[in-house]
User: Fold this.
Amino acid sequence: MVQRDPSASERTRGRGSSGRAERGASGKASARARDYAREEARGAYREAILAAAERVFRKSGFYATRMTDIAREAGVAVGTLYNYFDSRDVILSDLLSLRHQEFHAKVLAAAVSEDPVTRLRQIVDTSFDLMDEAGALFAIFMERGAVGEYDIERLVGARADSEYGEFLALLDKTIRAGIRERKLRDDVDPRLLVSMLSGAMNGVMYAWLKKGRRGRLSSATPELFELFLQGAQSK
Assistant:
């Protein structure tokens, strides 16, 4: 008589348990993949709506733009648009946040000089170049009653204000490097130098916007930077 292997049933149960575990793991992986695909699709859809909104804002300005205009430009129903954004204010805030991320990445990529003064010049020059491209969008600040950088949070939101803080932090880091290398004055608070430079940049930008963005904003870089250095450069 053939004796029964006492472990056979255990092995069978083990294979069943293992199979269920594998199917369970596979199911979870598939669910994660579906969730990821949905998030990717939603993100792409959202960016397409923001791009459409930017085109409408550039053409019509902020106050003349309606959610229906954005939906029409994006090729979606108004109800679908509201599934992604609660209002045009939210759309503008998210759009400016997206553009700031791109702006910051391009400024960082351009500011590569080992010399901090030259690097500071690269930051200013690249910033103005990018503003030349996006001037119509940032002109909305003035349309909404902006006077200075302190209006960012009031008009666009805390996130945009925080992101502008990243730009100021980059100026601060570069200016402090210039002070350490004795190429910028060490008898002035670096924070004051940052305020002076960013304030001058904003002043030039707002004057350019007030004139209807005539000419290249970047053409002001040499004069602005020379005037800043006349006061900031180490003697």
Summary: The chain has two domains: 8-84, 88-232. The CA atoms of residues 85 and 170 lie 31 Å apart. Residues 8-60 form the longest helix (53 residues).
